[in-house]
């Protein structure tokens, strides 16, 4: 019996050290699962098998979530940022609750209070940086905001240091190891959730297309991989997710790349999606109006000779952004799912089915955003590496904060440079 028990543990990815850890921290019994499907759907689908019932429940609620996604896009950037903030808080709550329940942290003094305090500190730091970057004129106009902006990093560090001292003072004999374990749990959660949501907002300011296309590609891949796997899946893909199949993985890849090309073509023609989100100080509101960059202007490309005989065309007109969309959709299809596999491994480690039961048939909010956070980091790195150049408005903001003598020095240096280039002389002649 002992040998059978050990072999079962090994099959589940559990080692002896895991068992010792569980006994020390109070054990991690499986979280009981319950049918959280709405009663209306239960009655309507009562005659179907569990497999097809799950298919319809997931499908109906997926359509509902997509509809909600379109509504918040229509409501504008401010609502999108608010939703990102709400999702971040809910994801943090789900992960912290797992640690709190699985390791029976009920007797730890101040654990939950400190976890939420650290969340507040990190958000204050990141959102303060964002406000300073994108609302510089508004910040400089208001004296309290100007002071907060000037000493923002010092204030952020002081707030974190306060929480750190509170944690040290809360240490209790017999709970030292568990307290430090949960301290690390909180900080890893902050790294995964808060940092990524901050990057999502930065992507949004580059233009709503950089927010919508990546998120839509992940959603499309999730749906199409499920569809291909449901109807054609035969070959298991990875042990962490037994229901994932190679057929679903490959089918989702091709469907997502095609979807990304089509969605990018449609959205590239609208300024409200392609223009950077900027704050208008005159109206105190966000604006998305600009002259589209070269990324969003139709260009003519030569089709490779190998494909000319197949498609019958020599050239094709498309937006340069569509080429970038291939990189985004490829990442969403091939690397993005590993965020889901990581989450599956996390859930198997603690013997839970979902992070929560917020969305019937889908689990918690974190179950839906495990791939999105990985995608957000990639998009931010991709923009910084291949898209974004020097930002004139930010340079001017920094220039205006300098002393008059420093501004004059920069002016004279820039003037001499333009004269050497012959640009200033031609402007004076005109």
Automatic annotation (TrEMBL):
One of its GO terms (molecular function) is phosphatidate cytidylyltransferase activity. It is found in: Membrane. It is a multi-pass membrane protein. Its main location: membrane. Keywords: Lipid biosynthesis, Lipid metabolism, Membrane, Nucleotidyltransferase, Phospholipid biosynthesis, Phospholipid metabolism, Transferase, Transmembrane, Transmembrane helix. It catalyses: 1-octadecanoyl-2-(5Z,8Z,11Z,14Z-eicosatetraenoyl)-sn-glycero-3-phosphate + CTP + H(+) = 1-octadecanoyl-2-(5Z,8Z,11Z,14Z-eicosatetraenoyl)-sn-glycero-3-cytidine-5'-diphosphate + diphosphate; a 1,2-diacyl-sn-glycero-3-phosphate + CTP + H(+) = a CDP-1,2-diacyl-sn-glycerol + diphosphate; 1,2-di-(5Z,8Z,11Z,14Z)-eicosatetraenoyl-sn-glycero-3-phosphate + CTP + H(+) = 1,2-di-(5Z,8Z,11Z,14Z-eicosatetraenoyl)-sn-glycero-3-cytidine-5'-diphosphate + diphosphate; 1,2-di-(9Z,12Z-octadecadienoyl)-sn-glycero-3-phosphate + CTP + H(+) = 1,2-di-(9Z,12Z-octadecadienoyl)-sn-glycero-3-cytidine-5'-diphosphate + diphosphate. Pfam families: CTP_transf_1. InterPro entries: PC_trans, PC_Trfase_euk. GO terms for cellular component: endoplasmic reticulum membrane. The keyword RNA-binding does not apply. Its EC number is 2.7.7.41. It is an enzyme of class 2 (transferase). The keyword Cytoplasm does not apply. Residues 1-38 are annotated as: Disordered. PANTHER family: PHOSPHATIDATE CYTIDYLYLTRANSFERASE, PHOSPHATIDATE CYTIDYLYLTRANSFERASE 2. This is Phosphatidate cytidylyltransferase. It comes from Dromas ardeola.
């Amino acid at each position: 019996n002992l040998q059978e028990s050990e072999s079962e543990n090994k099959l589940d990815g559990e080692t002896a050290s895991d068992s010792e850890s569980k006994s020390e921290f109070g054990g991690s019994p499986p979280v009981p699962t319950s049918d959280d499907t709405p009663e209306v759907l239960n009655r309507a689908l009562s005659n179907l098998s569990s497999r097809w019932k799950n298919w319809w429940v997931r499908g109906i609620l997926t359509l509902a979530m997509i509809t909600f996604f379109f509504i918040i896009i229509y409501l504008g950037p401010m609502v999108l940022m608010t939703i990102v903030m709400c999702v971040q808080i809910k994801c943090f709550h789900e992960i912290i609750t797992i640690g709190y329940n699985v390791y029976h942290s009920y007797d730890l003094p101040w654990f939950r209070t400190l976890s939420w305090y650290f969340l507040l500190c990190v958000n204050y730091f990141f959102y303060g940086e964002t406000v300073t970057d994108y609302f510089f004129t508004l910040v400089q106009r208001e004296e309290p905001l100007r002071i907060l902006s000037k000493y923002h990093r010092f204030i952020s560090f002081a707030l974190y240091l306060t929480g750190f001292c509170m944690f040290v003072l809360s240490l209790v004999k017999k709970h030292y190891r568990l307290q430090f374990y949960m301290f690390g749990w909180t900080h890893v959660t902050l790294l995964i959730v808060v940092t990524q949501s901050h990057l999502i907002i930065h992507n949004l300011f580059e233009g709503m297309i950089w927010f919508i296309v990546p998120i839509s590609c992940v959603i499309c891949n999730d749906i199409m991989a499920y569809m291909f796997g449901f109807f054609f899946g035969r070959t298991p893909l990875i042990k962490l997710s037994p229901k994932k199949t190679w057929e679903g993985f490959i089918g989702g890849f091709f469907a997502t790349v095609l979807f990304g090309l089509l969605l990018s073509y449609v959205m590239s023609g609208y300024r409200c999606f392609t223009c950077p989100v900027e704050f208008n100080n005159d109206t105190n509101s966000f604006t998305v109006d600009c002259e589209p960059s070269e990324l969003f202007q139709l260009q003519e490309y030569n089709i490779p000779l190998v494909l000319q005989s197949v498609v019958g065309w020599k050239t094709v007109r498309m937006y340069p952004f569509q080429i970038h969309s291939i990189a985004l959709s490829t990442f969403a299809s091939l690397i993005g799912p590993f965020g889901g596999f990581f989450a599956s491994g996390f859930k198997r480690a603690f013997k839970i089915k979902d992070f929560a039961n917020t969305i019937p048939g889908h689990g918690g909010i974190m179950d839906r955003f495990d791939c999105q956070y990985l995608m957000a980091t990639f998009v931010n790195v991709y923009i910084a590496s291949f898209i974004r150049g020097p930002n004139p408005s930010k340079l001017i903001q920094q220039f205006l904060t300098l002393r008059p003598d420093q501004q004059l020095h920069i002016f004279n240096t820039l003037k001499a440079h333009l004269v050497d280039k012959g640009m200033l002389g031609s402007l004076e002649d005109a």
